[in-house]
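Problem 12. The chain below contains 250 residues. Write out its predicted structure in token notation.
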Amino acid sequence: MEELIFVGTSSGKTDAIRFHSSLFFRTENYGLLIDAGDGIAKGLLNAGIDFDEIDGVVITHTHADHFAGLASLVTQMIIDGRKKSFQIFIFNDYQKQLLDFLNLAVLFPETFSFDLRIKGFEFGIENNIAGSLSFLARQNSHVVNKRKVETDFPFASASIFLNAGKHGVVYTSDVGNAKDLRLFDDLTYDIFISECEHIKPKDIANFSKTKKDVSFFITHYTDAEEIRRAFSHSSFKIAYDKLKINPNKI
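Solution.
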């Protein structure tokens, strides 16, 4: 992996300065985006990332701050006259809803100038993306039927382990509790990116004590000053929009 860029670092609450939480991984042969929330197209331009650099996107869950900007991103690709294929990785049971979502935005893949490939993933099964780049999604406890709605909607949300050759990266996305931090304890990784809106800083700090030689980054937070105070005496790095990381130099 050549570079990791924090496209956005805000929580679900819209921020006047920061975009919603999203990550871009630039490798030698593939550009992977994780999550495409409201405003993602502008967020990518703000981060200096050309739409054509993005070969695929993984959607961790379908809350608006992680998913709602996908139609706008596809629209920009159409306007730009994109030619190369584009992959969308989403939980297997959401594939039909995703297609309906695009159609509702008057986006019909069969009419595109490029090949749009919607690929469903299952929890616990590794998904090859390109070359040595792959990801493993495991279900966390963030998205559940909290209000006991009578529906057949498949409530699901994922944390992601990205295998990028020499580097292993964990992105919690949104979590439900501190136990979700340990979803990938059986795997080896050198970068851990944690949200900090639905979990307490002390829970992340306690978890980090069990991990050696791992670099921790904090993202998906609302109050930047509060987060700076919480982690002021730690080795954690607080991410900000447009932050670029070279994993080889950490």
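Discussion. Residues 76 and 114 are 12 Å apart (CA to CA). Students who got a different answer should revisit the alignment rule from Section 12.3.
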